[in-house]
DNA sequence: TTAGGGTTAG
């Protein structure tokens, strides 16, 4: 038992793990709780939570650690629903959750971006208010669920803070559009006794890139090694590229790619491509797209970005060419999708999908809202319609029914006045929806928070926390 | 003082 639980931690590939697993059976040790938790954990670390669940389910023997192992297996492999389901099973089985279980539950709420659920988990945490790791998980949960004010309160009250607490808060502020506050916090961190690490600096550079702070970004990037002994890694370069590309310093971005000493990956070229779209550099865009498609010939996002760049430049033959290639290769763009939590239920809206039971009412309300917004000065921005990829008659509808607009209207209809409307979506928000939501918060006197895959937009009284730079 | 579970980026 002692041997296996030690060796399982050291196994270096899945096939070794499977061999150890059968050898455990051979020796009849599979019911030992130490061996079982180590096995569950090992499967989880190799990204196989279902295998971990099999190990868990096949024996009745278990203790709190075995439960915690299997819950964390799903929490860490981004299956928040299953983690929460197992947590409920654990409570029904008569086990009292403690710090480790609650940390996994918080991490599950974080990955699901469900603020109300996270608040419920927070209630269980009160009696452990001195636990550092648990507090860190709480910080992350509040930051990622759009409750950055709550995170700030907890952070201020934390007696002990380690590098994870500081890094979580710095990145959290930046993701929520509070870049300058994030940089101020980094200054306070330097005054404290905690040394920044690799991840802290990523948060700092992220803050700079999302606020267009080019000089600050360079300064932190160039001083990483000297001040903190941290060699800039691939991710730091990616952040710098993002900073330069967004700010329109495309030549500097290309210089950085050439000098960085890493092979640029698809995400880096994609960053550059997006900068080319924003700053209308067709030639560089073509080069970047070519590089991406060499690395990943099926990357739908790049085809669409490139085709929009061509469309904006009026190069309709090239637009048609891309559409043809996409058709031939069977490449489809991912449909936009938004989620909103109302009455403990998640409501999903997908572009072009009218399956929501209230969809007709929502469309009527949306139409009326658009008319009121137009009277208040809203002009739909047709630049964001994918002219090339949609049929002529769908053009206006495709913009009108972007999933976040449907979710916003649904929130206005169903959430009490004064309650913040929180939406999560799978793609980045388009400029037209951004304008629409800004104006809607002013007209309807509501606060709206939208989380996209990269960051948050806090809309209030006609403005957004991103300062229209995202 | 021979063994198992939790937090930060992309």
As a percent range, the share of strand residues is 5-15%
- What order do the SSEs take from the amino end to the carboxyl end, as H and E? HHHHHHHHHHHHHHHHHHHHEEHHHEHEEE
Please list the strands of the largest sheet in the order they lie side by side: 2-1-3-4-5-6
| Classification by helices and strands | alpha+beta
| Total number of strands | 6
Computed over alpha carbons, the radius of gyration is 24 Å
Low-confidence stretches: none
Pfam families: DYW_deaminase (PF14432), E_motif (PF20431), Eplus_motif (PF20430), PPR (PF01535), PPR_2 (PF13041)
GO biological process, one term: RNA modification
Family: Belongs to the PPR family. PCMP-H subfamily.
Organism: Linum tenue
How would you describe this structure to a colleague?
Helix 12 packs antiparallel against helix 13, helix 15 (234-246) runs parallel beside helix 17 (266-278) and helix 23 packs parallel to helix 24. The protein is globular. 42% of the residues are buried. It has a 6-stranded mixed beta sheet with strand order 2-1-3-4-5-6, with helices on one face. The chain has 470 residues and is an alpha+beta fold. The termini are far apart. It is 63% helix and 6% strand. Among the domains are: 161-232, no CATH class; 243-333, Serine Threonine Protein Phosphatase 5, Tetratricopeptide repeat; 337-464, no CATH class. The chain binds one DNA strand of 10 nucleotides through helix 1, helix 3, helix 5, helix 7 and helix 9.
